[in-house]
Design goal:
Blueprint (H helix, E strand, L loop, with lengths): L4 E8 L6 E7 L2 E3 L7 E2 L6 E4 L1 E6 L15 H13 L2 E6 L25 E2 L5 E2 L9 E2 L5 H9 L6 E5 L22 H13 L3 E6 L2 H10 L3 E4 L5 H10 L2 E3 L5 H8 L9 H24 L13 H11 L3 H6 L3 H6 L13 E4 L15 E4 L2 E2 L6
Parallel strand pairs: 1-4, 1-5, 6-7, 7-8, 9-10, 11-12, 12-13, 13-14
Antiparallel strand pairs: 1-2, 2-3, 5-15, 15-16, 16-17
C-alpha cells in the first residue's frame, strides 16, 4: 500500500528564500502537519507549482509523423512530453480541424487522464487566406457572431483572434498591404464585449503596432506576441490589466526565416523589421513588469517553456520574475491554483535552484500531477 501522505520541506519558488513545509494527501496540497507522512524528496531543494506554457499549439506534429495531423493522438503525445518536463498546465492558442464541422482535438479534454490539463481556444478566427490556413474563415461582419459562438462553448474559455499576419511580409498581403490589420477596432470591440458577456476571455495575435493598438483599444484580455508594442501601449496594458505573452524565443526561428530558411525567400526588409522589433521590446518587457502588466511565458508550439524563461531573463527580467511568468503569475492570470492548501498537488521539485540556471527547469528531479509521481523517462 502506498503511504497515505507525504511531506516535503523545500524553498517555495519563484520568490521564496527559506524552506517551508508542505504535505500531500489524497492528491491535494496540505499546509498543516500530517502525522506519519513520509518524505517525498530529500529535505531541501526547491519547489514550485507545475510549470505553465500559456501559448502552445498541441496539434503541432513535429515528432510524431506516423500519427494523423491534428489528431487527439498527436495532442496527447505532446501533452506527455510537456508532463515529463514538469509543464502541468497548457493554454492552447489554436488548433485546426481535418474536416469541416469537426471539433478541434484540443476541446473537451479531460482533466483526470494523467496528462496536463488544457485551457483551449479551439480554432482561431481570421479572414480567409490571410494566415496559415488553421483559422476558421471569418469575415469582419462575422467576427462578433463567430466569437460569441466560440465563447458559449463550455470547453473553450478563451477565444483567439488573428489580428494581423505572421509577421508583416511573412504571409499573403491583404489588398496588397502586408501585415494589414484584419479587423477594425469597432468590430473587435463588439466581439470582445460579446465574449466577456458569455463569461470567456479573448486573446489576440498581434505582431504589428497597428494590430496591438487596435487590440488594446478594443479591451481584449491578452496580446500574443506584441512585437509592435511601444511605451504608451504598455502603459495601457497596465492600466487595463491586459496580459502580454511575448513569445520572445521565436526570435531565432523568425530571423532564420527572414534569411531564407524554412522555405521562405530571404528578405532584408523582414530581417530589419524583426531586429528592430526585438531591440525595442526587450526593454519594454522590463518596463511592463515594473508597471504590473501580467506577463505570460509561451512558446507558440511544443518547445520547452524553459527557453522562453531563459529568453525573458536575457531581456532583463529578474530570474524570479521570469520564472513567475511560467508558474505562479501564469496560474493566477489563468484562474488556476498554485500550491495553497487544498489545491491539486501539481508540483515540480529541483535539488538545485533553477532561478539562476533556467536550463535546470528542463530537468526536474520530481514531478507530481494530482499527487501522483510522474515517470520522467521518455514514454
Amino acid at each position: 500500500m502506498p503511504p497515505a501522505a507525504f511531506h516535503l520541506r523545500a524553498t517555495m519558488l519563484p520568490y521564496g528564500d527559506t524552506p517551508c513545509d508542505l504535505w500531500v494527501a489524497g492528491g491535494r496540497v496540505r499546509t498543516r502537519p500530517i502525522d506519519g507522512a513520509e518524505p517525498l524528496a530529500p529535505e531541501g531543494g526547491y519547489v514550485l507549482p507545475g510549470l505553465v506554457d500559456a501559448h502552445v499549439h498541441l496539434v503541432t506534429n513535429r515528432d510524431y509523423k506516423d500519427l494523423p495531423a491534428g489528431s487527439r493522438e498527436v495532442v496527447d503525445r505532446n501533452r506527455g512530453d510537456f508532463l515529463r518536463r514538469g509543464v502541468l498546465l497548457l493554454r492552447d492558442m489554436g488548433a485546426f480541424t481535418r474536416r469541416e464541422a469537426e471539433r478541434p482535438a484540443t476541446l473537451g479534454l479531460p482533466r483526470d487522464d494523467g496528462l496536463p490539463p488544457v485551457i483551449a481556444s479551439g480554432q482561431p478566427l481570421a479572414p480567409a487566406g490571410v494566415f496559415t490556413g488553421i483559422q476558421e474563415p471569418t469575415a469582419p461582419e462575422q467576427l462578433e457572431a463567430h466569437a460569441t459562438h466560440r465563447a458559449r462553448d463550455q470547453h473553450s474559455p478563451w477565444v483567439k483572434v488573428i489580428l494581423d499576419n505572421f509577421p508583416p511580409h511573412f504571409a499573403p498581403a491583404v489588398d496588397g498591404v502586408p501585415g494589414m490589420v484584419n479587423y477594425r477596432e469597432p468590430e473587435l470591440r463588439a466581439a470582445t464585449e460579446a465574449v466577456h458577456a458569455a463569461g470567456a476571455r479573448i486573446a489576440v495575435h498581434a505582431f504589428t503596432h497597428e494590430a496591438a493598438a487596435t487590440a488594446v483599444a478594443a479591451g481584449v484580455d491578452s496580446i500574443e506576441h506584441g512585437w509592435g508594442l511601444d511605451a504608451g501601449l504598455v502603459e495601457e496594458l497596465a492600466r487595463h490589466g491586459i496580459a502580454w505573452t511575448p513569445t520572445l524565443a521565436l526570435d531565432e526561428m523568425m530571423l532564420d526565416m527572414a534569411a531564407g530558411g524554412r522555405g521562405r525567400p530571404p528578405s532584408k526588409a523582414v530581417d530589419r523589421w524583426l531586429r528592430d522589433a526585438i531591440d525595442r521590446i526587450e526593454p519594454l518587457i522590463v518596463r511592463a513588469r515594473r508597471l504590473g502588466v501580467p506577463l505570460l511565458a509561451g512558446t507558440d508550439g511544443v518547445e520547452p517553456v524553459t527557453r522562453e524563461v531563459a529568453r525573458l531573463q536575457q531581456a532583463g527580467l529578474e530570474p524570479a520574475d521570469a520564472l513567475a511568468t511560467a508558474s505562479s503569475a501564469a496560474r493566477e492570470l489563468l484562474g488556476e491554483p498554485g500550491l495553497e492548501d487544498g489545491a491539486p498537488a501539481d508540483l515540480v521539485w529541483f535539488a538545485d535552484d533553477p532561478r539562476e540556471s533556467p536550463e535546470l527547469l528542463e530537468r526536474p528531479d520530481l514531478v507530481l500531477l494530482r499527487g501522483e509521481r510522474v515517470d520522467l523517462a521518455r514514454g
